[in-house]
Write a structure and sequence with these properties.
Layout: E1 15-22, H1 26-34, H2 36-39, E2 50-55, E3 62-68, E4 75-86, E5 90-97, E6 108-117, E7 120-128, H3 133-156
Antiparallel strand pairs: 1-7, 2-3, 3-4, 4-5, 5-6, 6-7
Length: 157
């Protein structure tokens, strides 16, 4: 008799995990996450591309970005603090959207591993923990769209 796995813990549906294989070495993929000029070329979904990125790339340093709606002009500011930086291997940082009053909203933790796969990169991206499964799903759509853009950028290198 087959068993069905059912998530029963408190974080069910509120942890986002995305894996991608990029046709570029880990150092190049890591650079795309650490260089603000490169981030401007891919960060954000297609309909909300980044218009601003700044980064103090050191443990304890901050990052900040703005995504602009192509349709309405809405600006979505967000930022966080770097928690771990291992060039070409790992990156971890907090992530929070700005609220209407300018203060940060719910803080999540993003952890990214970059693993060499014969000259390509296996990226494992995890963001947690969201308030609701719907928030998690929204980020899944947004990050996947951004990673599609990243894949296109890496293909140009």
């Amino acid at each position: 008799m087959a068993q069905t796995n059912v998530e029963t813990n408190a974080s069910a549906g509120r942890v986002l995990t995305i894996t991608r294989i990029f046709s570029a070495p880990p150092a190049l993929v890591f650079d795309a996450f650490s260089d603000p000029k490169r981030m401007l070329q891919w960060l954000g979904p297609r309909d909300y591309p980044a218009s601003y990125v700044e980064s103090d790339m050191r443990v304890g340093g901050t990052w900040r970005a703005c995504l602009d709606s192509q349709a309405s002009g809405e600006k979505l500011w967000h930022g966080g603090v770097y928690r771990e930086i291992v060039p070409g291997k790992r990156l971890a940082f907090t992530f929070a959207w700005d609220q209407a009053d300018g203060r940060p909203g719910l803080e999540t933790l993003v952890k990214i591993n970059f693993e060499d796969q014969n000259g390509k990169t296996l990226m494992t991206f995890q963001q947690s923990e969201f308030d609701t499964p719907e928030d998690c799903d929204g980020h899944r759509e947004g990050w996947n769209s951004a990673f599609d853009r990243l894949e296109e950028l890496l293909a140009q290198d």
